[in-house]
Amino acid sequence: MKSFASFLLTRLGWTVDPDTPKLDKYVLIGAPHTSNWDFPLTLLGLTSMGIRFNWVAKHTLFVWPFCYIFRAIGGIPVDRSAGTTFLKNAIELYQKRSRLILAIAPEGTRSRSRYWKSGFYTIAVRAGVPIALGYIDYSKKKIGIGSVIEPSGDLEQDFKIIQEFYRDKIGKYPENQGEIRIKTARKSQVRE
Question: Could you list the residue range(s) of the whole structural domain that residue 94 is in?
Answer without folding.
Answer: 2-141+154-176
